[in-house]
UniProtKB/TrEMBL annotation, chains A, B:
Domain Carbohydrate kinase PfkB: 21-281
Signal peptide, first to last residue: none
Native source species: Flavobacterium jejuense
Alphabetical keyword list: Kinase, Transferase
Record GO terms (molecular function): kinase activity
InterPro entries linked to this entry: Carboh/pur_kinase_PfkB_CS, PfkB_dom, Ribokinase-like
Protein's name in the database: Sugar kinase
PANTHER family attached to this UniProt entry: RIBOKINASE, SUGAR KINASE
Length: 308, 308
């Protein structure tokens, strides 16, 4: 079984959408990535940090999904990272209400020895120096390194971000971030420019409008599944990345054609994530549901044109 | 050869985009629809109206593409409909600078006798009463009636619009218009509601984000081709509709599966339309280019996931 090393936040979220609001619930990029990747036959481990206030049942939930949690440091007397946000009516934009870094402020990631030879590494959205710190601990060169980031680091830590970007194979960012990072409005041109910065594969996430995968002159598109109702978009991007990396790790195949399948799986899993608040849907998701939805993705995208 | 009857504007446009501006050039929904449908083996005819100021070479252009122009009335002493618009930097929105209805204000469409038995009718964006007026002249029931409309008629002529919508098989509108017409934010719910208003097939155009085709519980998605540069979006929606209707008319097959091919062709042709100002690209487009781009659409969307 291939190893997938995940670094990212394990956190508390409090979420408000037009459909309701939650108290502090389980959240964090690595949580969503881990849950999503657990649908594949991989040996996944999370490197993260939480405070002493973090409930054991949340850690048990991850462990029960087969995720190694040895690398989740619990800081004595510390408080867990907390994020609170309120989505606008169209669910496409949100306001951050609270960001309490807490134990994340001094996070020094330690990769468990058993995962220093992981085949696939997924660097979830975190300070670029933390992402670099994880790569520096690897004892064998991973077959694939995937990096997720956001505009915040482009604004506040661009040199450090550019440095870690040089070292990765795949970058996943949204359309606005691709434009900011490249200075190009056209996503085709943006992806070309970003490919010169390091990553040979650029995944541009467009939320409800799907995701694009670029490599050299090739491009592939995975739509988002049209849903009757999107309940809570929190974690959809991380779930997408976790599905992509989990599938690639399972299949041991880093060809462009196989990455197409990876982003279809990513989009598939993300379509479940948004159906309920927080991690609720992903916690109870069954493999059969994922397979059934794969058929929906085929019906949504496959066509047969006979050329005369 | 099947007959395709097109009703819509034949007009002058003056367009400004971040890439430049034009004087009065050939424009109008029926013009773009006609040019797009001319890539298929169909007997197409345009019903429209122009003024005496409309250059003969524009009419010749359409005729030379094999389009019957007998139904384009030339009003003695009249002036042709003129629209002028300026696109914003992202090309996703625009301001209308000038709308001079001129001869369109009193347009009374007359369907040539030879097309009163057309198999496919495409009602381009016009006052709903004009669209109804065309349907009333048909002597045999068309196999497929496609209607394009816009928010303007929802605001100003909703009862008349709802009346003509009842009589059509396919409606093509953009995402915001689908939301306005249905009162539903979710495009899935919006399409379900619109299907109860008449059209059994709902095509929702999302511009650079592609197009969705809904029918009962089925849904299909055609992406827009990611382009290095979009030069001028004018006419893209009409080109899309013309490609869809032209393909359906040629293939004599109104199944859902064949409509999938229709919207792929629509998206294909629209991807050329935006590459140059106005009708310039469509005028010179070769069939071989369309076929080559079809391969790009396949590469963009087709995937092979083996289920274990």
């Amino acid at each position: 079984m291939n190893k997938l090393l995940i670094v990212g936040t394990v956190a508390f979220d409090a979420i408000e959408t037009p459909f309701g609001k939650t108290d502090k619930i389980l959240g964090g990029a690595a949580t969503y990535i881990g849950l999503s990747s657990s649908f594949f036959n991989v040996d996944a481990a999370i490197v993260s940090v939480v405070g002493e206030d973090f409930p054991k049942e949340h850690l048990d939930l991850l462990a029960n999904k087969g995720i190694n949690i040895e690398g989740i440091e619990i800081v004595k007397g510390g408080k867990t990272f907390f994020w609170s946000g309120k989505y606008h009516n169209d669910l496409n934009s949100r306001d951050t209400l609270v960001t309490e870094l807490n134990v994340l402020a001094d996070f020094n990631p330690i990769v468990p020895n058993a995962y220093k030879n992981a085949e696939v590494v997924l660097l979830g959205n975190l300070h670029p120096l933390v992402q670099t710190g994880v790569l520096d601990q690897m004892e064998t060169k991973p077959k694939l390194i995937v990096l997720d980031t956001m505009n915040f680091w482009m604004d506040c830590a661009l040199p450090e971000l550019l440095d870690v970007i040089k070292k990765v194979d795949v970058i996943t960012i949204n359309d606005e971030e691709a434009r900011q990072l490249s200075g190009e409005y056209s996503l085709v041109k943006a992806s070309q420019k970003i490919q010169t910065m390091g990553p040979k594969y650029v995944v541009i996430k467009k939320g409800e409008h799907g995701a694009l995968l670029f490599h050299n002159k090739e491009v592939f598109f995975a739509p988002a599944l049209p849903l009757e109702e999107v309940f809570d978009p929190t974690g959809a991007g991380d779930t997408f990345a976790g599905g992509f990396a989990g599938y690639i790790a399972q299949s041991e195949n880093i060809s462009f054609d196989n990455m197409k399948n990876g982003i279809i799986y990513g989009s598939n899993l993300a379509s479940f994530c948004v159906e309920k608040f927080g991690t609720e849907r992903m916690e109870k998701l069954e493999k059969e549901e994922v397979i059934a939805r794969l058929q929906q993705f085929k019906a949504l995208t496959q066509f047969e044109i006979e050329l005369d």
